[in-house]
Amino acid sequence: MSKISHSCVWFRRDLRVHDHAALYHALKNCASVYGIFVLDTDILENLPQADRRVEFILESLRDLDAQMQTMSAGRARLIVLHGHAVDEIPRIVRQLGVQAVYANHDDEPHALARDAAVGEALQVLGVALHTFKDHVVFERQEVLTQQGKPYTVFTPYKNAWLKKLAQDGGDFYLKPYPTENYASHWADVSQQMSTSLKGLCRVPSLQDIGFEPTNLKALNIQTGATGAQTLLQNFLERIDHYQAARDFPAVKGPSYLSVHLRFGTVSIRELARLAHQRMFDSHVTGSAGAATWLSELIWRDFYAQIVANFPHVVQGAFKPEYDRIAWEQGLLADELFAAWCEARTGYPLVDAAMRQLNQSGYMHNRLRMVVASFLTKDLGIDWRWGERYFAEKLIDFDLSANNGGWQWAASSGCDAQPYFRIFNPITQSEKFDAEGKFIKRYMPELVHLSAKEIHLPRQPIVDHAQARLKTLARYAVVKTTP
Ligand SMILES: Cc1cc2nc3c(=O)[nH]c(=O)nc-3n(C[C@H](O)[C@H](O)[C@H](O)COP(=O)(O)OP(=O)(O)OC[C@H]3O[C@@H](n4cnc5c(N)ncnc54)[C@H](O)[C@@H]3O)c2cc1C
């Protein structure tokens, strides 16, 4: 017997119906469940008119709506609202007459503030906001040191993460939430809806919400939970080679699932379960690939709990002494930064990587490390400028992974490379793009160059050897006491 008659699920970064924590709890506990998404103007107002993420979201909402209809045998439809979440959620709650709102945790600082404001507004109406862990395997303070503190170093965190997984009944934490079992509890909007509500059961077009089309379709980026499953099936055929292939940007080595993890069009539990099972499959010789991939998923949890437990990283260095570094300022800094953004550094691998980002909204992980190191340690530019540029351009932009990656490269992070480790963009190029295949893909003007010549800088904006010395001097400040 269900305790609540009417409730709604507020979808945010979890655009799927299968293995979904909040949806499972709502369907299990309530007789009639609506599905809602808010196109939040607080977020949309800060985006450029053409933004691949907005197009990705709209396409994924269409897929979500279709999934809801399939799961509910045609009764459920996604209600799409456009406005400030703090106004829209209470308004729809009143209109639908629901007694509870279900959602999944989002631990980014602005999301926590939004949820607190929405929770308060709902409380006034006597409506509860129930939230659940869904976006990561272990969140907040679930994995702690023996002293009861959050981990700040990855390897012991990973060991504790794996131990917790094994201790609590093997795959207990990776079990899917069987939403399908309660599919009959979706609210029937096909029958009972008023005309005004029916108008909301429609995913708007880009133009409807004031945006322009991007090259998302031309890039063949797969959207929605359906797209995620296609990518996943393809990756599972390659997972055993992941460890060997993942560092070479010209090769199809990684999963390309980051945008789906970002928007929750795939379940982290499903991915971690598949990798974990593969690791222990005795018939698989290449299980090192699955183990390395699981490790990357654990990095994702690691950085999420860093932001949750140390929110100061969103503004400044994890290690405060790194905030003493005097980064380049003024006109020269502006020019160097513009050259980096516009792929005009003269270092072929750096420029090819920046073209990949600008043209597709994706950048290979090895190259994210190379260009981040180049910006901070060759150009002497504040890592926050690069972090912001990535946040604007990356289709998979995720605050915690991006912040973690930038602070790692700048050496200011919790478990970062030491400041005196400075990537050489030429040797990185020789090592990870030996034949220059990746460079030539994005810089066709260099196709005539041999595998030896391709890596060398052309009209470089800085000399790496000199920049290295300057950086060592710049970073010396972290060793002194103020
Ligand atoms: C400077 C910098 C900025 C970054 N910004 C982001 C970002 O905004 N969003 C983002 O998702 N990743 C970010 N990363 C991490 C990583 O580069 C991407 O997750 C990865 O390239 C995405 O491609 P994939 O899905 O094919 O990865 P795969 O190699 O298939 O990895 C699988 C998943 O593991 C997770 N993952 C992998 N590496 C990391 C990592 N180092 N930290 C956290 N999670 C990881 C991602 O969710 C990824 O989708 C950044 C890394 C650096 C160095």
Structure in words:
With 482 residues, the chain is of the alpha/beta class. It folds into three domains: 1-135, Rossmann fold; 136-175 and 224-309, Serine Threonine Protein Phosphatase 5, Tetratricopeptide repeat, CATH 1.25.40.80; 314-477, Orthogonal Bundle (DNA Cyclobutane Dipyrimidine Photolyase, subunit A, domain 3). 48% of the residues lie in helices and 7% in strands. The chain has a five-stranded parallel sheet with strand order 3-2-1-4-5. Helix 15 (348-360) packs across helix 16 and helix 16 (365-378) packs across helix 18.
Quick take:
The chain is an alpha/beta fold and 482 residues long.
Oligomeric form? single chain
Distance between the termini: 64 Å
- Rg, rounded, reads 24 Å
Overall shape: it is globular
Count of alpha and pi helical runs: 21
Order of helical and strand elements = EHEHHEHEHEHHHHHHHHHHHHHHHH
Strand content is 5-15%
Query: Main beta sheet: strand number and arrangement?
Result: 5 strands, parallel
Percent range for helical residues? 40-55%
CATH uppermost class of the largest domain? Mainly Alpha
Q: Please name the CATH architecture of the largest domain.
A: Orthogonal Bundle
Strand order of the largest sheet: 3-2-1-4-5
Please tell me the overall pLDDT.
Answer: 96
Overall structural domain count = 3
Q: What are the bound molecules?
A: flavin-adenine dinucleotide
**CATH-wise, what's the superfamily of the largest domain?**
DNA Cyclobutane Dipyrimidine Photolyase, subunit A, domain 3
CATH topology of the largest domain: DNA Cyclobutane Dipyrimidine Photolyase, subunit A, domain 3
Low-confidence stretches: none
